[in-house]
Predict the structure.
Amino acid sequence: RDTPVSPEELAAAKHTLLASYLFDTQTNTGRADALGFYSRIDSYKYDVDYVDNFEAVTPALVQSVARKYLTLDAYTVVTLLPVPDPVTASRR
Protein backbone atom coordinates (compact mmCIF):
# COMPACT_ATOMS: atom_id res chain seq x y z
CA ARG A 1 0.00 0.00 0.00
CA ASP A 2 2.58 2.53 1.05
CA THR A 3 5.52 1.56 -1.14
CA PRO A 4 5.26 1.00 -4.88
CA VAL A 5 6.40 -2.33 -6.27
CA SER A 6 9.84 -2.20 -7.82
CA PRO A 7 10.13 -2.12 -11.61
CA GLU A 8 11.91 -5.49 -11.42
CA GLU A 9 9.11 -7.03 -9.36
CA LEU A 10 6.47 -5.73 -11.76
CA ALA A 11 8.46 -6.93 -14.78
CA ALA A 12 8.71 -10.41 -13.25
CA ALA A 13 4.95 -10.49 -12.60
CA LYS A 14 4.22 -9.37 -16.16
CA HIS A 15 6.61 -11.99 -17.54
CA THR A 16 4.85 -14.72 -15.53
CA LEU A 17 1.43 -13.53 -16.66
CA LEU A 18 2.51 -13.34 -20.31
CA ALA A 19 4.07 -16.82 -20.21
CA SER A 20 0.89 -18.26 -18.69
CA TYR A 21 -1.34 -16.50 -21.22
CA LEU A 22 0.79 -17.58 -24.18
CA PHE A 23 0.95 -21.17 -22.93
CA ASP A 24 -2.82 -21.30 -22.41
CA THR A 25 -3.58 -19.84 -25.86
CA GLN A 26 -1.00 -21.59 -28.02
CA THR A 27 -3.56 -23.97 -29.55
CA ASN A 28 -6.76 -23.32 -31.45
CA THR A 29 -8.69 -24.84 -28.57
CA GLY A 30 -6.90 -22.57 -26.10
CA ARG A 31 -7.65 -19.50 -28.19
CA ALA A 32 -11.30 -20.50 -28.51
CA ASP A 33 -11.52 -21.13 -24.76
CA ALA A 34 -10.03 -17.70 -23.99
CA LEU A 35 -12.25 -15.88 -26.47
CA GLY A 36 -15.32 -17.73 -25.22
CA PHE A 37 -14.44 -17.10 -21.58
CA TYR A 38 -13.93 -13.37 -22.02
CA SER A 39 -17.01 -13.10 -24.23
CA ARG A 40 -19.05 -14.57 -21.38
CA ILE A 41 -17.72 -12.26 -18.66
CA ASP A 42 -17.31 -9.08 -20.71
CA SER A 43 -16.37 -9.02 -24.37
CA TYR A 44 -14.02 -10.84 -26.71
CA LYS A 45 -12.16 -7.48 -26.86
CA TYR A 46 -10.89 -8.14 -23.34
CA ASP A 47 -8.93 -11.09 -24.71
CA VAL A 48 -7.78 -9.19 -27.79
CA ASP A 49 -6.44 -6.35 -25.62
CA TYR A 50 -5.28 -8.56 -22.72
CA VAL A 51 -1.52 -8.27 -23.20
CA ASP A 52 -1.64 -4.53 -23.97
CA ASN A 53 -3.73 -3.95 -20.85
CA PHE A 54 -1.39 -5.67 -18.42
CA GLU A 55 1.70 -4.27 -20.12
CA ALA A 56 0.30 -0.77 -19.41
CA VAL A 57 0.25 -1.42 -15.64
CA THR A 58 2.74 0.76 -13.73
CA PRO A 59 4.03 0.61 -10.15
CA ALA A 60 1.98 3.73 -9.40
CA LEU A 61 -1.19 2.05 -10.69
CA VAL A 62 -0.56 -1.05 -8.56
CA GLN A 63 -0.05 1.17 -5.53
CA SER A 64 -3.22 3.13 -6.28
CA VAL A 65 -5.29 -0.06 -6.49
CA ALA A 66 -3.67 -1.38 -3.31
CA ARG A 67 -4.57 1.81 -1.47
CA LYS A 68 -8.15 1.53 -2.66
CA TYR A 69 -8.76 -2.13 -1.85
CA LEU A 70 -6.26 -3.11 0.85
CA THR A 71 -7.82 -1.21 3.72
CA LEU A 72 -8.64 -2.16 7.28
CA ASP A 73 -12.32 -1.92 6.36
CA ALA A 74 -12.01 -4.36 3.48
CA TYR A 75 -10.30 -7.47 4.73
CA THR A 76 -11.28 -10.99 5.62
CA VAL A 77 -9.64 -13.28 8.10
CA VAL A 78 -9.76 -16.97 7.26
CA THR A 79 -8.69 -19.60 9.74
CA LEU A 80 -7.97 -23.05 8.39
CA LEU A 81 -8.06 -25.82 10.95
CA PRO A 82 -6.93 -29.37 10.32
CA VAL A 83 -9.70 -31.85 9.72
CA PRO A 84 -9.79 -34.12 12.76
CA ASP A 85 -8.93 -37.72 12.19
CA PRO A 86 -12.25 -39.56 12.68
CA VAL A 87 -10.55 -42.42 14.51
CA THR A 88 -8.72 -40.31 17.08
CA ALA A 89 -11.50 -37.69 17.32
CA SER A 90 -13.99 -40.32 18.49
CA ARG A 91 -11.67 -41.31 21.38
CA ARG A 92 -11.86 -37.88 22.97
The chain has a mean pLDDT of 88. The radius of gyration is 20 Å. Residues 36 and 68 are 31 Å apart (CA to CA). The chain is about 65% helix and 0% strand.
